[in-house]
Amino acid sequence: MADPTALLLREQYNNPVQQRESSTFGMWIFIMTEVMLFGGLFLAFTVYRMKFPESFIVGSGDMSITLGAINTAVLIGSSFTMALAVFSAETGNRRMLSIFLLATMFLGLVFLGIKFTEYYQHYQEHRAPGIWFDYRGPNPGQVEMFFLLYFLMTGLHAVHMFVGEGILTAMLIRNRAGSFSAEYHTPVELTGLYWHFVDIIWVFLFAIFYVEGLHLHKL
Amino acid sequence: MAQPAVSRKTYAYTFGGLLALTALTTLLGFIDMGPMNVVVAVGIAAVKASLIAAFFMHALYEGKLVRVALAGGVIWFLILVSLTITDYIGRRWS
Questions:
Q1: Is there a contact between A73 and B65 if contact means CB atoms under 8 Å apart?
Q2: Of A55, A126, A129, A132, which residue is most buried, by most CB within 10 angstroms?
């Protein structure tokens, strides 16, 4: 075995650097298609926010800032552990790679747990559009639109979190099988890109849904 | 590829910065600034997103190809929003 990376080089590439660049570029293109997917929803939110400003601020006042802010911190924490997982992969530390992948998965599950707690609270407060929506203030239909967009956008984000958990599981299994080394760890890097992107989406979701109604707010 | 792209120290600073900005977003939300509330919140979110992309996602350390892909996505989104919004605020008849 003269060159350990030779085994990991697919035949269509000239060298490992070119192979890594192609994979990374492909992942970034995929992420930009995700920007298009979420972008349309952010546009829908912007349009309705301009159309019904008062109702959207009232709707935002029903969010729990405590859970929202904690969840943001948890997700940022999971991005930090993911970044450290990539660092461990780059330095060829397989043990620490496994630990940080597990930590990322754990924080992701904490996020989802808190998220579904919030969903349950909204349901109990009759804020589930189409299923059980009961709002006694002015313009209930406009507030319902706020909650529709809230469930749609955070729900799509939650789906991405579940997918991320699946990818992290696959990375953990592959790492235990000894697939990654300091020379070859591109899949871990790409998993990181995906995970951080999902984090970015949440940062914007937190900004548009949780913050605006804070000043008229319960904690 | 022996040298990691970004040091652990940089990751830690980024993490700290993101937490601080989250706290700032929350605190500023308690002040009633009218329509500026959402503008400030999204502005801070954009700074946080840039930090994540630059350091956690290594965008600052990648080649031109990745930067062009990233710029393409961001510019596409800005075109989508700005042209749609100009249409909505320009409609006098509805």
A1: no
A2: A55
